[in-house]
Structure formats: C-alpha cells, structure tokens
C-alpha cells in the first residue's frame, strides 16, 4: 500500500520590537542573564501587564502578510502549566480569538504553485530559559528570565503540507515574508523562529486522517525536513507491521537523526485557558487595518511575477533575487539605471550572491555597494569594453568598496583588446607553443579551440576579446 | 480626645495652623498600636519610616510648603497585600515569607506623593480569602468592640485598626465584600470604589476581575478625602479607566431631596438578623422624611451571586496563585533536603506554604477551569455575572442609589464558622454582587446590637457614581448623628 503524509506546522516567530510585550524591558539577545527584567516580566506579586502597541501593530502586519483576516475583536487568555522558566506559571497567549485568522501562503515546489492555508496567527509572550549545570550531579539548575515576555506570534497552518520538501519551502516562504515586512529576522539559531510539526500518514487518496504525532526540537529548516522524513518512515513501518501509532509528542534528536517519545496524549497538559482579566479586549478598527495593509511592501511572490512577466527575467534568477528583500531592492535600483534586466540579474547572482555565499555575509554587510558602479560594470561588459573575465576580476572591489569600475579598468589598463594587430602575435605564439592542440584541431577536433583561446586569454591577462581571438585562430588554421 | 481618635478632616486644619504636628499624631497612633497589640491588627509596623516622614512633613508645614494638604501628615494603615518597596508583603500567608517587593504599588506612590504617612501593614485573611481574618498565617485579628468576636474580613486588620484608633485612615481591598463587611462589623466606614477607578497595580491579585482597592475611615468625609488621593487612571493598569478628576469631598452637604433610593427586595429576606433589618429600615424611612424618594426594586439574580462568585473568584485565584512555587521568592520547602526533584519541591512548597482555605479555593478554581468542565462552570458563571450586571443596570435606570444591609449578621465569635465554609461564604451575600457588577459600594455604621456589636448599612450606586453615593452616605451619617 502507498501512503501519503499529512503535515501541519506551528511556527513561532519572535517579533523584533525594542521592548517586551507587556513591559518596557529590552528584548536584546545575548545580554547577561537576568538583566533585561523588571517586576512585570518576572511576574512578581501585584504586577499587571500592559500591551505594547508595537507588538499589536507588527502582529497585524504579519497577519496581513500571511493573507489573514484581522479580528476586529480579539483578546488574551492565560495558558497554564508549571515550569520554572515561566515566572507566573501561566503564559499570556491568545486562545479562541486570535488576532489573525484564515490566511494562506502560496508556495512553489517543482514549478507548481500550491496553496497552504493558515488557520491562525496569535500573539503571546515567550518564556525564559533554563540553564543546567554542566555537572550531572548538580542538584539544581539556573534560570535566565531575559527572554521572558519577548513578543512572539504563533502561525498555525492547516494540515495542507504533503511532503517534507514542501514543509521546507513553506518555512522559507514564511521566513521571507516576515523579513520583507521587517517584523522579525527569523533566525533559527537565535531562536527567533521555531517550528513544531504535526504529522500523520494515510493511504494515498484516502480522505480520513491518521493518528498524528507532534514533533518538537528541530533547530533548522533542514532538520524539519529530515525529522519529517524520519517520522514518515517510522509511521509507515508501524502501520505495515500492524502496529498502532500513538498520539504523542516526539523529540527530534539531531545527532542520532531519530525522533523519540516525549509524552503521550494522556500526559498532555490541561492548559485551563481562560480570558486574561488583567488586559482589556483588543479592538482593531478597519481604518487601521487599511492603513497597515497599504503600508506593507511588495511581497516576494508579487515581485517574482513582476520580474518574470514584465522584466523578462528567467524564473530561477527571479526566485533567487526575491529570496532576500534587500537583494531585490538592490536589483530594482540597478534596473532604474539600466534596462538590460536579464544581464543585470545574471551578474547580480553570479557576482553578489556568490560573494555573499562565499563570505557568509548578508547584503546588509555590504555597506559601500553602490548600484551606480555595479551597473556601470555590467554595462562595460555588455558593450564589450571589458571581458567577462576582467569583470569578474574587478567585481570584488566594486562590491566591497563601491569603486567606479571605469576607474579601476583605466588605472590597471584592463580594457578589452579587439585590435587584430595586438592580438595576432599572441595567437602565433600560442600556435607555436601548442603544436599538439593545433594538430588535433586540424584533425577535426573543433572543441580544442576553446583551449587555445584560453591560452591567449591568459597571455592577455583576460583583456583580449575572445571573439576576435577565435576568429583569428579559425582563419589561421583553415 | 486623643489625636489618634480624631478624623483626618479634623486634624488637617490643626496641622495647617501648626497647633499640632504630624509627629504628635504619629506618636499617638503608635502608642495605641503598642497598647493594643492583642487586637493583632497589624502584621508589620513601619515605625522608623513613619517618623522620618512625619518629621519632613512637619518641616514642610512649618515652612508653608504645603498648599493643598489632602492627607499630608495623616497616619494610615495599608492592607498587607499591597506592595511597598523593600518592606515585607505577606498577604497573610506563609508562602510569601521573606518577600520584599522591589517596587511600590500605584496607591502607595499616590499616598507618598500626597504625604500620607504609612504606619504599617494590616492583617488579613490569607490572600484575602475569608470573611473573618481568621485564615491569616499570623493569627486572627480581634474585633475591638469585643475581643471574643471576629472583625470581619478579609481586610479585618484595616477595619480593626481604624475602629481601635490604631490609625486614622486605612487602605484595604474588596473582592467580594472584604472592605465593606469588616467595616460594618467593626463600626467604621468602608468604601469599595467602581472597578477601574483605583489602580490595582501593586495589589497582590486574588481575583483580578473583582479586586478593587478602597478606603477605611471613621466617617464618610474622610473616605472621600482618601478617595481623592487614590483614584485616577494609571497607565500600569490596563483595566483602570481614564476619567476626569473629581473632588469627592465637594457636595457632600447637598440635600437629597428627590434623590431616588431603591430598596432591593432580595436583600431583606428570611435569615437576616432582625435588629439589622430594623436599623437599616429605620435609616431608610428617615431619609424619606428628608425628601428622598424610596421605592422597592428587584434584583432577581441576587440568589445566584454567592454561587457565581465562588466559581469566578476561585478560578481566577487558582491562576493568580500559580506563581507561588518556591522557585523565585517567598517560602521554599526542603531546607532539610526533603525535595528530591522539581515536582516534589512544587508540591511540598505549596502544601506547606498555603493554608487550608486558600487550598480549597485553588482546588475549586482549578476544577472549574479544567477542560470538560469549563463550559459548565466558568463560562456559565460569566453568563450569570452578566445577568447580575443587567439587574443593576435596570435598577439604576429607576433610582440613584440602593440601600441594603452590609452583612446579614453582626460580628460572630472567633471559630464560630471556621468549620463550615459555606456558612462563612454567606457572610458576603449582600456585598458580592457589587464586585460581580463592578459598581461602587460603601458601608457606614448605623447603630449597634444589644450586645454592642456594630451594624452596617450599605449604599450601592451605578458605575462611577461615587459622588452620589458619598452624598447619600454623608446625609445618612448626619441623621444617625442626630439620633445619638
Ligand atoms: Zn520587564
């Protein structure tokens, strides 16, 4: 029997407000433990929460970016469980009236677009962090409350995801959107994006849902994909060997690459939700929603469509350019200066994106990168003033320092040489030095000409116009 | 008359004229506190701080720096569930042993800004759960009128301190009658303002949607004076209401001609003490003679109020009290190494730290909020609460204020009801509805029983109608004065 997985994701995104959700403490990451705290976020007796309006604003923006409806009336609730990192032993969250509901994200996987529906987006406060002593014999642990009260939104998807790869794509698209609207940096290492997955399997084509497990403790998108793959395999094996799948919460072990049972359904918490009496209901007027909607930047998939349809850029290029908002904006700035969009997109990807990957940087780090000088580099290539090879040689300086490439080319005398008399001697020299290759060419091995041209390019330090060189060879070896 | 037996509004002109000093008042108060320790009105006293403040205030008076005196130089007591920076706040519980808040509650900030002198923290039922101040970890407070009787609760310490001249004014909190009922039983004035009028920031929560800070004093004018100080919007309390500043001491003397007084039938039922009923009805007919219009009204859902309250209040309490777990502050079990892991530390801390009544309510509340029971209990209770609110809304369309007895019985003997929680819960039968509806209420003394135990009369008004309520209370007080 064939099986298909049914996957839903619960994603926690940390909102990048300056201050916490219910007090004015800093949200800064990496501070000395228990320094970004006050009576309110420590939940001391007698304190009361006051909603940070910026959190509400960003939660609404995020909901809008996920195509959600915005609740005109919503509220906070208390979710109870005992744990030392939760100072009040309840978390202020939203239960039955979340701020955003009924949204969707369209993802592209294998050149097909698929809609993943989003059930809800709700606001809540983060908990602190337990720090266990390195000695296993220690009889106590430490707790750091700096993170307590840092604002989160939880984004719950419908079980519309049907493969681990799709889950990965969904997370990428979601992260992209949050970064586009600048409500979160969605950095999984720093915990500003966390993901739990619900997964079950069923015979392919069946409408019924199987028993699901919840997977926690996945620390990267790749881990989500791997954990889901493992879990699908495990569940299929269970069913095939006529075992029952238990509804339970399982933890992903990244070292062993397995999931292990954490707690069963029977051990699940009864959170005893009830409306938070210390906060008033959240009333959001249609005017404000309209205003926030209008202020949202263009989303990556809109840009993607625009790049393909209006600018004629290849799909893959468009996808890579829109993956990072700053990159897309850089491309758009360049496109205002020069209308060979395809060439621009090629050069941005081959030079800038590769540079970033190689140096593990983001475009934010390229403080001096200047659209004008980059465009002028691309133009020089397109006009035949420099060779691609030279362009690649000088691009680093253009990227890092924003230097005008014309200046570099002039100073280093790197202009493309198309003058036959200047190249002729080099062609003759190479023919003398490479008799074997010459023989092969004459014997009909056309491909070897690339090798010969390369030799001339070396001699010319990349300046010789490869077209002219090729023509010369063909003429001389006829 | 000793200074500590006087009212704030009598003392203030004398302070201003420099005939007396704040230090002298404070001395007389502490003298009484020392002599009457057996009343057990206070959990802790703040002598050094009080005298330091009195000295500064005396200097301000002598240099003419005090323009509007409000409560400047007047000693007052604060219920021990309101946070004062660096001073112990116990809520009458073992579980807060050693806890000193690093911040001031908003009312404390306001009292300090208006130069009130806090002399100490008063005794209370543990976490304000009780009607007799017998559930305090620090032992019961005794009723100053007869030390064999309880003072009411949960703000029994504040009520007794005012009644026993161990302070001039006091602050309490009222979740289901915790100011008004002890005020009635101790023969003083006790006022619970409208929910949202006084900031709850710094008040250790019992039941957040019902808790309200209020006043104790020896007469209505003093309560109005203290309300002037503590009322007002607070950005630290999302449930506090933005409203115009009102001088509650103004207009008390206005006549009550044509003021419409409603008398709810449901508050004069079988089982209420006959002498109480007679006294309250006497005051009502005296007010009618003064020109007030009296008419009966119905509050048909009154009979559900106690049951409703004992779902909502414990539910919220079970949540609010979850934080007392031994991890961060207060009492932690296992000094003898008995806690083998986190869970046993939780269990033992809460088992040893909380008293019986608190545990009972945590259990009721936890049960009411449990999945599968939530709809039948908490949700239903919230619906009933709306019905009770609507009852009042209807009644206040017809009349300005309601008059009822504050408590169905006068003070009872120590230990008389501790074995029967249900009986104890009925002590608040006439006060609970005001908390559920969020409306203001005040209890004023209206005579005594043959045994010399005080009787209280309650006036209720619509949301933010404290002024009307205080006016009627003041007029009733004047009539009672004439009578005596
Ligand atoms: Zn804080």
The SSE string of chain B, one letter per element, is HHEHEHEHEHEEHEHEHHHHEHHEEH
Low-confidence segments of chain B, ≥5 residues, pLDDT <50?
none
* Assembly state: heterodimer
The set of bound ligands, ions and cofactors reads:
zinc ion
- Main sheet properties of chain A: 9 strands, mixed
- Please state roughly what percent of the residues of chain A sit in beta strands, choosing from under 5%, 5-15%, 15-25%, 25-35%, 35-45% or over 45%: 15-25%
Question: How many DSSP E strands of chain A?
Answer: 16
The strands making up the biggest β-sheet of chain A line up spatially as 2-6-7-10-1-11-12-13-14
Structural class of chain B: alpha/beta
**Number of separate structural domains of chain A:** 3
Number of helices of chain A: 15
Going by helix content, strand content and strand pairing, the class of chain A is alpha+beta
Spatial strand arrangement across the major sheet of chain B: 1-3-2-4-6-5-10-11-9-7-8
General shape of chain A: elongated
Radius of gyration of chain A: 29 Å
Mean pLDDT over the full residue set of chain A: 92
Radius of gyration of chain B equals 21 Å
Largest sheet of chain B: 11 strands, mixed
Task: Estimate the helix proportion of chain A, in percent.
Answer: 25-40%
> What level of helicity do the residues of chain B show?
25-40%
- Report low-confidence residues of chain A grouped into runs of 5 or more: none
Model description:
The complex is a heterodimer of chains A (478) and B (484). Chain A is an alpha+beta fold and 478 residues long. Chain A is built from 15 helices and 16 strands. Chain A is elongated. Chain A starts with a strand and ends with a helix. With 484 residues, chain B is an alpha/beta fold. Chain B has 15 helices and eleven strands. Chain B has an eleven-stranded mixed β-sheet with strand order 1-3-2-4-6-5-10-11-9-7-8, sandwiched between helices. In chain B, helix 2 runs antiparallel to helix 3 and helix 9 packs across helix 12. The chains are: A alpha+beta (478), B alpha/beta (484). The complex binds zinc ion. Zinc ion binds next to loops of chain A.
């Amino acid at each position: 029997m064939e099986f298909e997985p049914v996957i839903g994701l619960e994603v926690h995104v940390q909102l990048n407000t300056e201050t916490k959700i219910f007090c004015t403490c800093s949200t800064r990451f990496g501070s000395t433990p228990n320094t970004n705290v006050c009576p309110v976020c420590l939940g001391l007796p007698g304190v009361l929460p006051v909603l940070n309006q910026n959190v509400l604003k960003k939660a609404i923006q995020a909901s809008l970016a996920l195509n959600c409806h915005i609740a005109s009336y919503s509220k906070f609730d208390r979710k109870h469980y005992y744990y030392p990192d939760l100072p009040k032993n309840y978390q202020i969250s939203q239960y039955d009236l979340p701020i955003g509901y009924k949204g969707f994200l369209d993802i592209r996987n294998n050149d097909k677009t698929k809609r993943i529906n989003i059930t809800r987006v709700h606001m809540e406060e983060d908990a602190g962090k337990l720090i266990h002593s390195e000695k296993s014999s220690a009889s106590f642990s430490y707790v750091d409350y700096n993170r307590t009260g840092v604002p989160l939104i939880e984004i719950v998807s419908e079980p519309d995801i049907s493969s681990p790869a799709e889950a990965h794509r969904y997370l990428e698209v979601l992260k992209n959107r949050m970064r586009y609207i600048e409500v979160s940096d969605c950095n999984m290492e720093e915990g500003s994006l966390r993901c739990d997955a619900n997964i079950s399997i069923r015979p392919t084509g069946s409408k019924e849902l199987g028993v699901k497990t919840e997977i926690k403790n996945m620390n990267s998108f790749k881990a989500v994909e791997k954990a889901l793959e493992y879990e699908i395999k495990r569940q299929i094996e269970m069913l095939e060997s006529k075992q029952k799948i238990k509804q339970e919460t399982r933890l992903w072990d990244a070292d062993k690459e397995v999931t292990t049972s954490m707690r069963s359904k029977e051990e699940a918490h009864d959170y005893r939700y009830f409306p938070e009496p210390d906060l008033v209901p959240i009333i959001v007027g249609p005017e404000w929603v309209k205003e926030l909607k209008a202020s949202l930047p263009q989303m990556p998939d809109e840009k993607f469509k625009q790049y393909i349809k209006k600018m004629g850029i290849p799909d893959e290029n468009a996808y890579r350019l829109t993956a990072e908002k700053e990159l897309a904006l850089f491309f758009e700035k360049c496109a205002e200066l020069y209308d060979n969009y395809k060439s621009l997109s090629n050069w941005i990807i081959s030079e800038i994106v590769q540079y970033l990957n190689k140096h593990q940087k983001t475009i934010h780090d390229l403080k001096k990168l200047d659209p004008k000088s980059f465009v002028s580099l691309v133009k020089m290539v397109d006009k035949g003033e420099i060779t691609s090879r030279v362009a690649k040689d000088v691009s680093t300086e253009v990227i890092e320092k924003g230097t005008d490439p014309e200046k570099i080319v002039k100073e280093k005398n790197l202009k493309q040489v198309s003058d036959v008399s200047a190249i002729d001697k080099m062609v003759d020299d190479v023919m003398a030095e490479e008799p074997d290759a010459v023989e092969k060419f004459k014997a009909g091995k056309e491909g070897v000409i690339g090798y010969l041209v390369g030799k001339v390019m070396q001699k010319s330090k990349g300046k010789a116009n490869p077209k002219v060189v090729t023509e010369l060879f063909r003429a001389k070896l006829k | 008359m000793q200074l500590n037996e006087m009212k704030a509004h009598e003392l203030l002109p004398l302070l201003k004229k420099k005939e007396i000093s704040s230090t002298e008042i404070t001395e007389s108060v502490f003298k009484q506190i020392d002599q009457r320790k057996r009343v057990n009105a206070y959990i802790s006293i703040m002598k050094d701080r009080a005298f330091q403040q009195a000295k500064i205030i005396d200097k301000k008076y002598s240099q003419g720096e005090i323009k509007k005196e409000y409560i400047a130089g007047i000693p007052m007591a604060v219920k021990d569930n309101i946070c004062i920076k660096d001073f112990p706040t116990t809520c009458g519980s073992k579980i807060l042993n050693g806890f000193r808040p690093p911040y001031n509650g908003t009312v404390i900030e306001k009292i300090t800004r208006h130069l009130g002198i806090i002399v100490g923290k008063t005794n209370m039922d543990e976490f304000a759960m009780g009607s007799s101040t017998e559930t305090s970890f620090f032992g019961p407070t005794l009723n100053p009128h007869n030390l064999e009787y309880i003072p009411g609760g949960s703000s029994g310490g504040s009520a007794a301190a005012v009644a026993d001249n161990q302070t001039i004014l006091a602050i309490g909190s009222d979740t289901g009658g915790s100011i008004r009922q002890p005020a009635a039983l101790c023969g003083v004035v006790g006022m619970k303002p409208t929910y949202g009028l006084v900031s709850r920031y710094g008040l250790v929560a019992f039941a957040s949607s019902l808790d309200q800070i209020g006043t104790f004093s020896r007469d209505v004018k003093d309560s109005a004076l203290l309300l002037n100080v503590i009322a007002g919007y607070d950005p630290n309390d999302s449930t506090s209401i933005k409203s115009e500043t009102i001088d509650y001491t103004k207009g008390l003397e206005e006549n009550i001609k044509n003021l419409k007084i409603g008398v709810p039938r449901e508050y004069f039922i079988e089982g209420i003490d006959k002498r109480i009923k007679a006294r309250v009805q006497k005051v009502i007919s005296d007010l009618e003679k003064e020109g007030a219009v009296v008419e009966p009204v119905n509050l048909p859902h009154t009979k559900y109020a106690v049951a409703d309250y004992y779902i909502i209040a414990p539910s919220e309490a079970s949540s609010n009290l979850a934080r007392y777990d031994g991890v961060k502050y207060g009492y932690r079990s296992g000094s003898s190494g008995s806690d083998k892991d986190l869970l046993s530390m939780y269990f033992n801390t809460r088992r040893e730290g909380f008293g019986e009544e608190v545990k009972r309510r945590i259990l009721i509340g936890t049960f009411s909020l449990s999945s599968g029971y939530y709809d039948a209990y908490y949700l239903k209770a919230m619906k009933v609460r709306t019905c009770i609110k609507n009852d009042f809304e209807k009644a206040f369309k017809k009349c300005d204020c309601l008059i009822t007895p504050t408590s169905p019985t006068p003070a009872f003997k120590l230990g008389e009801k501790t074995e029967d929680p249900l009986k104890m819960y009925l002590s608040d039968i006439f006060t609970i509805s005001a908390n559920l509806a969020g409306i203001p209420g005040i209890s004023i003394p209206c005579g005594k029983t043959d045994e010399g135990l005080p009787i209280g009369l309650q006036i209720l008004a619509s949301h933010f109608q404290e002024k009307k309520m205080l006016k009627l209370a003041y007029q009733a007080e004047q009539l009672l004065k004439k009578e005596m």
